[in-house]
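Why show two proteins at once? Because comparison is the fastest way to build intuition. When a single record is shown, students tend to memorize it. When two are placed side by side, the eye starts asking what differs. So, the first record is below.
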Amino acid sequence: MGGFYDDPRFGTLQTKNLQAKANQTSVIAARVEADRRTMMQAVTIKDWNVHFIQGDTTTGTSANHNGWKITLGKSAAGTGAFAAMGTAWCGTAGQANGSVLDASLTETNLDAGDDLILAYEAGTALPAGVLRVEADVQYVELYT
């Protein structure tokens, strides 16, 4: 259930910050969940950006892109399944401390109780050392 049309927040873009709970200090062999937040109301995810608190260099190469990726995903309440909705591709030179990366996104609806997930993805071009990111996810509440 969403808010009501007479709510002053109707149509207002809001931001949720997702933060990696710890540094990623080794090569990523499988998806590593950095943060998970349960949405308390139904929302539409509109955009997101990745902030590199602790940047990193990259090892290896990737067939699809020149770098490795961070994903934004959702998990339907109670299922535990991960469905990606956005990707941030990190270049082969790595990312500097404090840099911001504009990430791609397929606009997606989440129901109340769904989880919003920030994850580091495995691949052939991976971070080589210490990495820590946070993400600003922009959304609007769905109204009835």
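Second record. Ask yourself what differs from the first in the token line.
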Amino acid sequence: MSQAAPAQNGPVIEFRDVSYRFAEGSELISDLNLQVQRDETLVLLGRSGSGKTTTLKLINALASPTSGRVYVEGRTTSEWDPIRLRRGIGYVIQEAGLFPHFTVERNIALVPKIENWPADRVRQRVLELLQLVGLDASLASRYPRELSGGQRQRVGVARALAADPPILLMDEPFGALDPITRAELQREFLALQKRLAKTVVFVTHDLREALLLGTRIALMEAGKLVAALPPQQFVECSNPIVKQYLDAFGSCPPTNGNRGPG
């Protein structure tokens, strides 16, 4: 199946009445209706077990809905060839998920090589991405074990961006880092998103991170969507579950000033 041309009108990603149940019948996601617009950063926020990561996996068909439909670029995930779908979506996870026996260069070059890019183009792309994520070209020949946690996470972001996918999924990518490195990468992410304008779905349980990075924040609780609002509206929301989440983090954290896409 050939890759679909991007739908310029309408959401890039859409959940319509989506539920997800485990084999034994317990429900992790219930009647989810949610849209992700082009070039926005939608943050999925919620406590552990709220369904955030499963929601993310439904987008790139690492999981399939029990009922309802998930659309990517106007086509249901069941209509996509799963390999083509995943190659068009960058995926960044906590601890980067790098192949330990691959060098930095080989990790970043994985998808371009699978896509049969010419060797000189692959090499140039690796160097471009190392610069983009703030790493020296001399690190290309190193292995993940020879890098710091922050460097490994930067390589993970570079790998996800290697084939220039229009969609980026990020599952608590900075959660395992120390506070200083995490703050540095958050700032770098904002700069990258401003420059690259990807459609991003970002999972976190950290309200401060959500308010800083998100164009919109979608709060999930027990598999249900509570609210999906721009940061400032989220802070001012009167929903009791939102207020409970805000109260748990104490004083109101700063937002990134985004009001939403468009």
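One difference worth noting in the second protein: The first strand starts at residue 13 and ends at 21.
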